[in-house]
Amino acid sequence: MIVVTTPTGAIGRQVLHRLLDDGHREPVRVVVRDPARLPAEVRDRVEVVAGSHGDPAVTDAAFDGADAVFWLVPPDLAAPGPDVAYLDFTRPACAALRRHGVPRVVGVSALGRGTPQAAHAGLVTASLAMDDLIAGAGVHYRALALPSFMDNLLRQVATIRDQGVLYGPLAGDLAAPMCATRDIAAVAARLLLDRTWTGVDSVAVLGPRDVTFDDAARVMSEVLGRPVRYQRIPADAFRAGVLARGASAPMAQAMLDMMLAKDAGLDNAEPRTPAATTPTTLRQWCEEVLKPAVEAPAR
């Protein structure tokens, strides 16, 4: 039995589809706040545990008999702080992992372990501490060590379409890894189906090559057939934008601290190996995901 958290989210949804659609016969259980958000054809093929995977009763029910768990902490900008959002949310799950003797967990985490920047990297610091918490539950654990996501650029569809501008707090000429969520899901599904790995380790998912945000704007311009430029914004403006999205002050600062750490090289310490290099290029992602979103009628 494989348990999938966040099965309606950007990554969890794709993990679930891979587990169901790749011809595997492994039974799947999902933890979902609102089962109605699952497509009917998915609900018919999985066991559903309704509720939050931060709830002790929910994880106790979900992890009973589990052979592997896909763990992803859902975003909670309104949380009192990153330790609450990541560590306190995960503690009930760790107790359930121990109680039920779950052998393996694959978790969504971040790059940067062992770097000087990681100690003051906001959400990344909390995410790495979450990895240690899960590993301490006595499971075999693989932390997916992730850079920035191409898919996060979808948050700026309106400004890309209406202003021809991509905004961000990082230097435009900083080359760093960037990956697509489809590739994260592929790696996660492979690990969840593999019963041979043991111990605690991280698995980097780095995309096909390092890119800059100036590169991203150039590729967008070519794919969309309209000029797009990258504009760096000050730290205070970035923090204000996160606050405007409903974040608490500590979470907005944690988001900013993560970006400042990335700007200082947080994501660049991981060596690029063939195993860490994933296939989806930024151009392919822009053609298949961003362009349809930009060209869709504005709501």
Automatic annotation (TrEMBL):
Gene3D superfamilies: NAD(P)-binding Rossmann-like Domain, UDP-galactose 4-epimerase, domain 1. Residues 8-193 form the NAD(P)-binding domain. Pfam families: NAD_binding_10. This is NAD(P)H-binding protein.
